[in-house]
Amino acid sequence: MTEATVTMDFHPQPQGGEAKPWAFPAPERSTLPNGLTVLRSHRPGQQVVAVELNLDAPLDTEPDGLDGIATIMARAFSEGTDRHSAEEFAAELERCGATLDAHADHPGVRLSLEVPVSRLPKALGLLADALRAPAFADSEVKRLVRNRLDEIPHEMANPNRRAAKELSKELFPATARMSRPRQGTEETVERIDAAAVRSFYDAHVRPSTTTAVVVGDLAGTDLGQLLADTLGEWTGPAPEPRPAAPITADDTGRVVIVDRPGAVQTQLLIGRIGPDRHDRVWPAQVLGAYCLGGTLTSRLDRVLREEKGYTYGVRAFAQVLRSDAHGTGASLLAISGSVDTESTGPALDDLWKVLRTLAAEGLTDAERDVAVQNLVGVAPLRYETAAAVASTLADQVEQHLPDDFQAQLYRMLAETGTVEATAAAVNAFPVDRLVTVLVGDAGQIAEPVKALGIGEVTVVTG
């Protein structure tokens, strides 16, 4: 009996194509007759268009005692206009298949619209109405205030949010807006009414200080005419010059424990302020922070997670706080994570050892190469959507950066060497100039933390 020979024909194995050069898209810049600045970026195939609006209403312009009014105003933009009630406005947005979000931060107020390109004219009309003639109805503002008051206790109960609040209070002078919660406190928010919101709007929201970023597949869309017929109809007076207050902070090494009796975990937030994106050290600082705590293979994770099992993850990062047109500003340099209560002392001890080892021995070329690959090599994936591109362009506007900043940043990251990245990381996180906030059970963690000698330890109520 002979065995049958079985043959199979395989399809040719797919082969990778040639790598195509990629760069962060450069926008086209123009200005409408009413003074509104427009950045547009045509992204073929992106049928969902993203629109970002930057309003020059920073938090430090909020009236005394009314912290949080910028947040209430931002949320109230979608709560009715002179043409639509709040319910009608929401229904019109839904008919467009659009979403409209808004938030306030230290640099200003941001509105974010996403809509299918076929419905862009209608959605831009609604957005223009919201900016041109917001209703700011008493009933809607009262509801937004109540909602915000309901959110505050939940934020205070969240260890991560509570740590951030305490770090801001510790770092910045009490007179500085940055020392207080971005969205206000119970005391300040409950004072906000429709008249105050209207007054804040009248003082700070106008087309000549607004920038619209539009990203998506704009082929076949006469965007210039469309903007002229919508946002171009919005008028307002010219702004008065407003000097920005300098950012100062106290990074004397110290520890603040926010007491949460019975907590099974301790939330860590360690930080100080440093250079923003205008500083030439920024690319090296981004690279160094990524090597320190940017991913699962970073030094902090390798020690605290993989070797010691203290945590699910620890991250190091730089977050821009505010920049001005003169190129001055600051970023928050921070290390964040959580550990089980009993490991709080040992985890902090090992974290400081990682920082000291970094200063003594530096990063390796391998660490630098992995960081560059992760930051630069995957950049095209980060910007597959119109919303991601629009958000980054709006960030650049907000921080007074040139339109090609992000494209140049990737080039500079690729060119940054190991020595430069090491120096930037060491300067960003000096072991004797870090403010440490711990949210956890002070009865269990205070003494082990004091024994580390990383700064005076203070306990506050949670």
Quick take:
This protein is α+β, with helices and mostly antiparallel strands. The chain contains 17 helices and 12 strands. Helices cover 40% and strands 19% of the residues.
Structural account:
The chain folds into two domains: 28-233, Cytochrome Bc1 Complex, Chain A, domain 1, CATH 3.30.830.10; 254-461, Cytochrome Bc1 Complex, Chain A, domain 1 (2-Layer Sandwich). 40% of the residues lie in helices and 19% in strands. The chain is built from 17 helices and twelve strands. It has helices at residues 69-76, 86-95, 120-132, 138-157, 159-171, 186-189, 194-204, 223-229, 282-293, 299-307, 344-361, 365-377, 379-382, 386-398, 405-415, 418-428, 442-450, and strands at 28-31, 37-42, 48-55, 99-105, 108-116, 211-216, 254-259, 265-274, 314-323, 329-340, 435-440, 456-461. α1 crosses α7 (194-204) and α12 runs antiparallel to α15. The radius of gyration is 25 Å and the shape is globular. The chain starts with 27 loop residues before the first strand and ends with a strand.
CA-CA gap between termini: 84 Å
Adjacency order of strands in the biggest sheet: 1-2-6-3-5-4
Count of extended strands: 12
Beta-strand residue fraction: 15-25%
Q: What name does the CATH topology of the largest domain carry?
A: Cytochrome Bc1 Complex, Chain A, domain 1
- Give the number of helices: 17
CATH homologous superfamily title of the largest domain: Metalloenzyme, LuxS/M16 peptidase-like
The CATH class of the largest domain is Alpha Beta
Q: Secondary-structure element sequence?
A: EEEHHEEHHHHHEHEEHHEEHHHHHHEHE
- Shape assignment: globular
Q: Measured on Cα atoms, how large is the radius of gyration?
A: 25 Å
| Weakly predicted, low-confidence segments | none
Mean pLDDT: 95
